[in-house]
Specification:
- It is a single chain.
- The protein is an alpha+beta fold.
- Among the domains are: 158 residues, Neurolysin, domain 3 (Orthogonal Bundle), CATH 1.10.1370; 64 residues, no CATH class; 249 residues, Neurolysin, domain 3 (Orthogonal Bundle), CATH 1.10.1370.40.
- It has 28 helices and nine strands.
- The strands form three sheets. A five-stranded mixed β-sheet has the order 3-4-5-9-6.
């Protein structure tokens, strides 16, 4: 029997009062309950968090006080459905912290961080609550549960155990203290990265310093200058500005200046993260030790596909060793080309490689970004992604204008399936701004679930930093940016197509080393002529992209595949080095990084630079001891896409199987079982090496 939550009168009065005036605490009766972004102000956040936490605690107290014998419904399921208001509030706040933050929001984040940590501990270290969970878990074999219910019970029990429920009381207090410190440290890490990125700009007033830069890059820099009230051109460390500058500027000294600014963003100075990195690592070591694990990696990997650090390190080594010769050969080829074309230094430096590799690519394939960009107008690329989702999964995306948004650049789409069923609201936020962190990501303001017999479809968001329209041109993507769009759209489809009862098991709520499969498989279509032909048209003339140009895109697909793979493995190895420590190293952050990655660098490192202080994936995101998962998932997707290649890239049967076994299932079953059910066998690393052309011929 499902219990009704009993909330103390004072708490109910507070929540009711807040609901009347706080848009974070009420759902819009129209438009599927979409967030009321047009009403939300910073002043609403702290009261909303306080009220939502009180409500959530009252729900937990009601579970604990239930006089009935603990069972799946009144304990496990009740716990899963508790804190729904808090989920809504935090889903809005923390997503906007990444996409549209300001100083006041960052201060609010620091204020609510201890509150959220304390609430988390209120659950995970709640002894009578855990006793009820444990009582249900101990009789799991005699319960008549469905697959997703079994998984929820297993996950719930393990979550308590992994968050200190079995610790002695004194250790629980210590664990809570560490958890609060870690939460604040990761917040400060993110705050410093954003501030350091925004603190630098290169202001050019002499047009001769623009040598080598394509027109679209110059136009973008001119617009950036005007937005700052400056004459000339401004380049920033946001990737749409930084990346093209490093790739095309023929001014080596300026490339060096910009590179050094980028690679020392949070190394020393006002926004230093070097000590914060050590603090985060130290806290993770202490927390994992308290829980009985040898290292944080042992703790983090326990519920991943890889299971343990030994498997991850062996996997990274298995890819690295055969890749290194290819990477070294590629660098040697670029260096030889550079020397033949006037480069006078004795070795390529980090600020040279992007520039000379682009020159080499242009010469080798007779192809450059300037030629390609007119065919990849953002609006056409979005329409193409939507069309692909329609051809594969029967989805339609219709832009709607009456749903509130958090920024004027954001667009919203109503997603329906072929039967007209509403599947999701899809928010798209494409352009960089100082209030948005760098990179690209998918997230959700609300996950899919079924509550009290009523299904709630998700609110999915995609956030990128693509080139903005200029006075002369619309937003034109590089082919690499189009690949990024498809990648994040793949994550979005994972959320949009979710089916299940429990939000903790649906959509992207899967092991970290599985979550990149739906995103990375989508990248393959960016190289398929049959797909590119459908949308890649010159925005000025309407001319379809020539077959010869598509051939060059396909031919250049694996350009620098070895170098790129070593780069990714380098991040994974650095991540594992930090998180397999049992104590802090004697060296500082920069020196520890240098010692770890110098042996696998194919271009010499630059003294004083480091990427750990801005490595947000592992120090402020969810990829700690998990960055390897990008490569792990690449192995999965290389094997999975081969089935599409065999049967047809728009094959409905293969797509239906991928949807039914991967996209819709979340982690309602063991993901290894789900993958094998789709593909018919377990994946092997050879599939990736062959796809990348990294095999001896």
């Amino acid at each position: 029997m499902k219990i009704k939550m009993t909330i103390a009168a004072a708490t109910l009065a507070l929540i009711t009062s807040c609901n009347m005036e706080n848009p974070l605490l009420t759902e819009s009766p129209e438009l599927y309950g979409a967030p009321r972004f047009d009403k939300i102000e910073n002043k609403h956040y702290v009261p909303a968090f306080k009220a939502a936490i009180q409500e959530a605690k009252a729900e937990i107290d009601s579970i604990v006080a239930n006089p009935e014998e603990p069972d799946f419904s009144n304990t496990i399921e009740a716990l899963e459905y508790s804190g729904r208001t808090l989920d809504r509030v935090s889903g809005i706040f923390y997503n906007l912290m990444e996409a549209d933050t300001d100083d006041e929001m960052q201060a609010i984040a620091e204020e609510i961080s201890p509150m959220m940590t304390e609430y988390s501990m209120y659950i995970s270290l709640n002894k009578p609550l855990f006793e009820r969970v444990k009582a249900v878990y101990m009789k799991k074999d005699s319960l008549d549960l469905e697959l997703d219910q079994k998984q929820l019970l297993e996950d719930t029990y393990k979550s308590f155990a992994r968050n200190g429920a079995n610790l002695p009381d004194a250790d629980k207090e210590t664990y809570s203290k560490y958890a609060e410190e870690l939460s604040l440290a990761t917040l400060q890490f993110s705050k410093n990265v954003l501030a350091a990125t925004n603190a630098y700009s290169l202001h050019i007033t002499d047009s001769t310093d623009l040598a080598g830069l394509p027109g679209y890059v110059v136009d973008m820099a001119s617009l950036a200058a005007k937005e700052k009230g400056l004459d000339g051109w401004v380049f920033t460390l946001d990737y749409p500005s930084f990346g093209p500058f490093m790739k095309f500027s023929s001014n080596r000294e300026l490339r060096k200046e910009v590179y050094m600014a980028y690679m020392t963003r949070s190394v020393g100075g006002e926004f230093d993260n070097t000590e914060i990195v050590r603090k985060i690592v130290d806290l993770r070591i202490k927390m994992s030790e308290l829980l009985g694990y040898d290292t944080y990696a042992d703790y983090a990997l326990e519920n991943k596909m890889a299971k343990d650090p030994e498997t991850v390190n062996a996997f990274l080594k298995e890819l690295l060793e055969p890749t290194m010769p290819f990477a070294r050969q590629e660098v040697a080829e670029i260096f030889k080309f550079a020397k033949e074309n006037g480069f006078e230094d004795s070795e390529l430096r980090s600020w040279d490689f992007s520039y000379w590799s682009e020159k080499y690519r242009e010469a080798r394939y007779n192809l450059n970004e300037e030629q390609l960009k007119p065919y990849f107008r953002l609006e056409n690329c979005i329409a193409a992604a939507f069309d692909l989702a329609n051809r594969l999964y029967g989805l339609t995306f219709t832009e709607i204008h009456d749903v509130p948004v958090y920024h004027k650049d954001v667009k919203v789409y109503d997603v329906k399936d072929e039967n007209g069923r509403h599947m999701a609201l899809f928010y798209a936020d494409f352009f960089p701004r100082p209030s948005k962190r760098g990179g690209a990501w998918m997230t959700a303001f609300r996950e899919q679930s079924i509550y009290e017999g009523v299904e709630e479809r998700p609110f999915i968001s995609i956030v990128t930093n693509f080139t903005k329209p200029t006075e002369n041109d619309p937003s034109l993507l590089t082919h690499g940016e189009f690949v990024t769009l498809l990648h994040e759209f793949g994550h979005s489809l994972h959320g949009i197509l979710a089916e299940g009862r429990y939000s903790s098991l649906t959509g992207t709520s899967v092991p970290r080393d599985f979550v990149e499969l739906p995103s990375q498989i989508m990248e393959n279509w960016a190289y398929e002529p049959e797909f590119l032909d459908t949308f890649a048209k010159d925005y000025r003339t309407g001319e379809v992209i020539p077959a010869s140009m598509i051939d060059k895109i396909v031919a250049s697909k694996n350009f620098l595949a070895g170098y790129s793979q070593v780069g990714q493995l380098r991040y994974g190895i650095m991540d594992m080095a930090w998180h397999t420590l049992s104590e802090l190293p004697a060296e500082g952050t920069v020196d520890f990084e240098k010692k770890t990655v110098d042996p696998i660098n194919v271009i010499p490192s630059v003294p004083g630079t480091a990427f750990s202080p801005t490595f947000s994936h592992i120090f402020a995101g969810g990829y700690a001891a998990g960055y390897y998962s990008y490569k792990w998932a690449e192995v999965l997707e290389a094997d999975a896409f081969s089935l599409f290649k065999e049967k047809g890239i728009f094959n409905k049967e293969v797509a239906a199987s991928f949807r039914d076994n991967i996209l819709s299932k979340g982690s309602t079953e063991d993901v290894a079982v789900l993958y094998k059910r789709f593909r018919g066998h377990n994946p092997e690393p050879e599939a990736l090496m062959e796809k990348l052309g990294l095999v001896e011929k």
